[in-house]
Amino acid sequence: MLQNLHVKNLALIDECEVEFSDGLNILSGETGAGKSIIMISEELMELIGMCDRIIIMKDGAIKGELPRSKELNENSLISMMV
To answer: Where do the H-state alpha helices sit in the chain?
Structure first.
């Protein structure tokens, strides 16, 4: 589990340190405010429900990018993964 995050000289951040407690920790902010979360999961429907957009990476390259929509489903993601 991630307990501490230290960022230095990244984009507009000179230096920042964040300590995480046990349990649920949430990073929040306005859409477009520059926060991202990388999630790796086999539970595709869970990812679809959580994300504003999904980027599929395979072998170190981006294979596709999809915005969240009602039409997005497991099959559209799987087709980009294989």
So the answer is: 44-50, 74-81
